[in-house]
Specification:
Layout lengths: L8 E2 L21 E7 L4 E10 L4 E6 L2 E3 L10 H23 L8 E7 L3 H18 L3 E5 H13 L5 E4 L6 E4 L1
Parallel strand pairs: 2-6, 6-7
Antiparallel strand pairs: 1-4, 2-3, 3-4, 3-5, 8-9
Helix pairs in contact: 1-2
């Protein structure tokens, strides 16, 4: 199943989108490949992203995900949500690597949601990210969940200098770039 259907996004359209540091290894085409793990609430997902310096574009190569659905009449609780993420994270990582046709040793970095979010699910995904980073000697990059949403919005809209009010329950933040 194909999970990443959008085309490449131009880094030039925004102007101040962070570029991968020169210290990150690149593949044979000079591209930077990163694998990201997000699991701050009831969804867990794994994405593979490529930055191509020749075209100055970012593209999502894979984005498989699973959603924990709590029993009717109950909200999702940290412990059960963490168990869900633990049960699915290995298969999601494999699916993302297969869909993106990426070998773990070709990755430039492993990114993961560092917070804010639910403690149990965050820890489950952080452990998976740290394990991959250690196993393949790949840099580990923690990402602020809210900033990740804002950066995705900047890419989607082409906004280069937004003032943002991010409202999401306990994660509400004012941000300016």
């Amino acid at each position: 199943m194909e999970t990443a259907t959008d085309g490449a996004c131009s880094a030039d359209a925004i102007g101040n989108l962070p570029l991968p540091p020169p210290s990150y290894k690149v593949n044979s085409k000079g591209q930077t490949l990163v694998l990201g793990i997000e699991g701050s609430a009831n969804k867990v997902g794994v994405g593979v992203l490529v930055y191509d310096p020749d075209t100055r574009t970012y593209q999502t190569l894979a984005n498989p995900r699973k959603t924990y659905v709590a029993p009717v009449g109950h909200g999702f609780l940290p412990k059960e949500t963490a168990w869900h993420h633990q049960a699915h994270i290995v298969a999601l990582i494999r699916a993302a690597l297969v869909e993106s046709q990426t070998l773990p040793q070709d990755l430039s970095a492993i990114c993961f949601t560092q917070g804010p979010g639910m403690g149990g699910p965050l820890r489950s995904c952080a452990v998976a990210a740290r394990t991959l980073a250690l196993q393949f000697d790949i840099p580990l990059v923690g990402v602020n969940h809210c900033v990740g949403h804002i950066e995705m919005g900047r890419v989607a809209t082409g906004a280069s200098d937004p003032v943002v009010l991010y409202v999401s329950g306990g994660n509400t933040q004012n941000r300016h770039w």
